Amino acid sequence: MAKATVWSAGKISAKRYGSRKRQDEMKRMVMRNIRFRQKMRMQKGLCMQKGLCMQKGLCIVLAIGLFLTACASQGGAERKAAEYLREKYGTVSEGTVPKVILDCDMTYLGDDAMCLCILAEADRLGLIDLLGVAVTGGNSFVAEGTNATLNQLERIGREDIPVYMGTDEPLGGFRDLKEQEKIVGKIDHWGVMYRMEEYVEPERYHDLGSGYDRKWGYSETDPEAQSAADFMTEQVRQYPGEVTILSVGPATDLALACLLDPSFAPDTAGVIYMGTTLNGQGSYTPYADFNVFYDAEAFDVCLNSGFPSQTIIPSETSQWARLDKAVFDLLDKKGDTLTAQMWLDGQYSLYRRDSSRKTDCVDAIAAVVLLNPDVVRLQEERYVTVDTEVREAGYGRTTTRKGEGQEGVRAAFILEVDTALYWDFVTDLLCHTQEEP
Ligand SMILES: [Ca+2]
After folding, report:
1. 304 C-alpha vs ligand 1 centroid, how far in Å?
2. Phi/psi zone of residue 109: left (φ > 0), alpha (ψ -120 to 50 degrees), beta?
């Protein structure tokens, strides 16, 4: 791959999307998916044949009966958990069930994963309809994020939720952050643009090289063949006015969807972003937060594409919803779901060893304010603009102004959430808490 410099960036173009190379990649991926599914179908067929030879008719009837009883009891528990949440928190998706697409830059047991778990459990309880997960580059390469999404969905028993791969490359092209740092000042050295020498194409989600995580391994399931941007535009065409997008990674794929189809953004129900900073102080560079800095052009495209409502969780709001030992104690006390267990197995010991440990979990706020707006303690309407000049220090900086008629795009900024109520709700949801009989 040719190494891009900061100087080559800055022009808005969806150059990889729809290119010949990309089309060839997609064709190869589709073919591999078809071969994989054929193999799985053959294996399943063989298992069924073996089973039928070994079982007598009565055993089959009994097994089916037990299975149906277990399903009914599971469904009953989920219904009770949903009723409990509606009763206790009042505002969880009253009326119609919102359709949701999560667009994220996934890692293992990070804030994108918490956001996914909250949405997957809300979907399981019938509070929302999670249409699918789009994976973009940012924290991790799309290939790594895809495998991490599939693995975690398998762990929580939700491999039925479809996963769609997007692109790693910002609209203006990859940048050499060491060069950009000379202009911007100190940049936190994390995110994939600091490890481009290890780059893996999205289609290599089961061939990750140095990005392979031995503890998790490779998923058994595969992503869908359709691209993330095509998936988003198709779903919004199918359900005009009903789909809410949660954008908790760089906005590249969302911007591609906006550019591909001008009616896409206006036809959604709205968007909730995690990104921006409020006070001019950056959280990743001296001026910008990570998500907007990764692809400021994409965020600018999205802001100006006509979403009917735009809600923004700025990085400062993170302080009101950090993971700490108290949250894990609640999960431990309430939880016997696969999701609670995944978090407890993966992280509880870290917080027990160091009870002062606190971890940012800001992406999850986007999911919680969608499900239960009552957790919001302070919200302000502001007008926002973003700096997209890549040759300047303020690349990715967002400026917000209060008051009608100001320059910029109107958005609702979530400034504070009620920490205790927030985690009580999240742990009740993840653990399917229900009224004692
Ligand atoms: Ca994220």
Report:
1. 21
2. left
The answer on pLDDT for 10 being more than 80 is no
Return d(Cα 332, Cα 31) in angstroms, integer.
Answer: 44
Please name the residues in contact with 300: beta carbons below 8 A apart, sequence gap of 6 or more. 386, 388
**Residue 111 Cα, ligand 1 centroid: separation in angstroms?**
6
Closest CA to 97 of 72, 132, 130: 130
Tens-place pLDDT, residues 345-365: 999 999 999 999 999 999 999
Q: Determine the distance separating the centroid of ligand 1 and the alpha carbon of 135, expressed in angstroms.
A: 10
Residue 110 CA, ligand 1 centroid: distance in Å: 8
Ligand 1 centre distance from Cα of residue 410 (Å): 23
Q: Tens of pLDDT along 187-202?
A: 999 999 999 999 999 9
Q: Domain of 289: which CATH number? A: 3.90.245.10
- Give the distance (Å) from ligand 1 centre to CA of residue 61: 47
CA 396 to each of CA 181, 184, 253, 287, 406: distance values in angstroms, whole numbers, following the listed order: 13, 10, 17, 7, 20
Q: 106 alpha carbon to ligand 1 midpoint, in Å?
A: 6
With vertex at residue 193, the alpha carbon angle to CA 192 and CA 195, rounded to the nearest 5 degrees, is 65
Interacting residues of 18 by C-beta distance below 8 A, sequence separation 6+: none
Range of the domain at 54: 16-66
What are the start-end ranges of the E strands in 91-226?
Answer: 99-104, 129-135, 163-165
Say what the pTM is: 0.85
Residue 82 lies in a domain: no
Nearest CA among 278, 283, 287 for reference residue 416:
278
Q: Judge if 390 and 242 occupy the same domain.
A: yes
Å from CA of 79 to ligand 1 middle = 31
Asked if 431 contacts 336 with a C-beta cutoff of 8 angstroms, the reply is: yes
Give which of 339, 291, 351 is closest to 118, Cα–Cα.
Answer: 339
Q: For the chain, what is the domain count?
A: 2
